[in-house]
Amino acid sequence: MLIGAALLFWGWRVGQPFLGVIAAVLLEASYLVRWRWNFSDTEYYRLWDLCTLLFGGVAIYLRFSEEVTKGGYLLFQWMPLLLLPIMLGQLYGSQEKLALATFSWFARKRQADKRGGRRFNISYLYFLVVLISAGASNGRDPWFYLGVCILCGAAGWNLRGIRFPAPAWAGAFMAACLVGFYGHVRINQMQNLLEARIGDFFTKFAKKDFDPNETRTTLGHIGKQKQSNRILMRVQAEKGAVPPRLRQASYNIYREGIWLSRQREFAEVTLETDGSTWKLDPAVPAKGTVRVSTWQERKRGILSVPLGSGEIRELPVTALETNGFGAFRTREAPGVVSYLADFDANAGNDLPPDPATDFSVPEEEKGLFQTVANNLDFKGLGETQILEKVERYFANGFKYSLEQSDLPEEGRSPLNQFLLRSRAGHCEYFASATVLLLRTAGIPARYATGYAVQERKDAGELYLVRERHAHAWALAFIEGRWREVDTTPGDWNEMESANQSAFQPIKDWWENVWFGFSKWRWLGKKGIISQIAPWLVLPLALLLLWRIFGRRQRTKMSDQKSLLLPGLDSEFYRIEKHLAGKGFLRQQDETLSQWLRKVQNQVGNEDQELGRILELHYRHRFDPAGLPHGEREELSRSVERWLSARNETVRRKS
557 with 34: CB under 8 angstroms? Predict the structure, then answer.
């Protein structure tokens, strides 16, 4: 009853009580049923192969339809059902213990050449798997631990030695449970501490993706900034023109080369009834529509969208969140997404300016930008005129460069070096300086990061966005709306692409092939591989079931205990029945060897083959290790051959 109770507990914990009841009834009914299947080791091998096949099919299905971590938990949760065939085989089969070779394809070959072999009862192992699977639901309550203690206590009670008094055993077990609970709590606290410390350690060295809360610039870094040509996105206009930039995040606080976002809280966007449309701002007209196909972080990723996006369609994610600063975060996405973004570039719909941050300039930079602003003389100019003057300022005398050869002089910041001395830098210099200069002139501004869309593929409508197209620019609040201000010289892409490898076309071809395969794999919410996996496993499972049960016969038993006696399926009993039909009856006090010797004396013929058959029967019947698979089949074939020879002799005489 213990395994049945464990399965009921498992069904409750993983939210599948109906399946738990069915599995428990199937297993516990074996103690009421009076028949058993005459399984040889070969049939048990096939039952285990069926379990392996089911495990592989479910693993493939979950790998290509769920996020990896979630898929792993689900796989553990379903383990009791995946191993149910082998457990049912032991309970409804003719052997109480299974050969160890059942669980190893390599051991099966060695087992065929060896006598006997180790055997064991898998009931307690299955019981342990059920308890572990019940814990895979990761429920945060004390009932799991209490249930495990009760079930393990019941199992241990049946196995306790008679030397231990019941009260002493119960007291020791209760003490072990209390110590285990205390250790469980402490281990959980230690895990949380280690995760935090290790996470901080690896964050220092891990590759940085776009962070909606913080971005570290390379302002003031000496040397050349190396950029990768790896293709990240494929962009195509469905309506109107392709936007020049796709934004991932915006920031409003600058501190010594680091841009931070004060708006750190994300709010979930409402999902429409079709399950793949997300309305960001219903008031934004869809003047343009762009399709973005890109890789996506499965657990939590950042989308790349145009400024003024009002709706995102065909996005197969569980949830979409925004922080109001143009950052959109997805949860539980497939590995590849291809979505449509409806936008109006003249309708920047971010949160309005914050007087405390969107006008601020760091104290150490105020003198620098006030000097530049005084030289430009913004007095009496409107917002649009100020913006035009700032754009002209960076367009004359400044140049794009990925390489910084000189350290800033003592007392000078990287932006001071950029504006007053080198007048050369990459997009982070231009964007940061533009934001702080606009703020000095009284215009709210923010720092934006994302990608530039400027590499057209073969003069067509498809644009490629590479890793080196990562870009930074400014957002200015002009005439009541946010506008993109990109003061980086327009030739920066040509300068970066000039140094690409001669093998880049080959790399692009391979990346396109792999991306095409990945899109095929991730069709819809569930990938095509996850859709066809069940149909590949089903025919193989049916074939194994036919091989297991197609030629097996059931044996009725009058007594449940007789099922546990080995060797009752021996074919030798057919010979005994045949000889009894010829009048050679065995007395109750005669052993088989004595009886056969008497039969041979009466017929005047010594049968060497019958002696070999009797030897195999004795080993099959009484050897605890049983017969190896090869000799078990030899016993069956020898009996069949002996009976056929006797029937042929009778036919000739008649």
Answer: yes
Rounded distance between C-alpha atoms, residue 322 and residue 265, angstroms: 8
Distance between CA atoms of residues 44 and 547, nearest Å: 11
Which residues in the chain show pLDDT less than 50? 113, 115-116, 196, 199-209, 220, 222-224, 523-526, 557-564
Question: Which of 216, 297, 207 has the alpha carbon at shortest distance from 251?
Answer: 216
258: left (phi over 0), alpha (psi -120 to 50) or beta: beta
CB 487 within 8 A of CB 434: yes
- Spatial CB neighbours of 272, under 8 Å, sequence gap ≥ 6: 278, 279
Within a 10 A sphere around the Cβ of 384, how many other Cβ atoms?
Answer: 13
Distance CA 328, CA 291 (A): 16
Query: What confidence tens digit (pLDDT) does each residue in 388-414 have?
Result: 999 999 999 898 887 766 666 666 788
- Residue 467 near residue 511 (C-beta atoms within 8 A): no
According to the model, what pLDDT value does residue 205 have? 44
Cα 270 to the center of its chain, rounded Å: 26
Structure tokens at 78: 């379903």
Helix 608-622 to helix 629-653 angle (10° resolution) is: 140
Tokens of 565: 């006696």
pLDDT tens per residue across span 202-241: 434 444 445 666 666 656 454 445 568 888 999 999 888 8
Q: SS3 of 565, please?
A: coil
Asked if 296 and 336 touch (Cβ cutoff 8 Å), the reply is yes
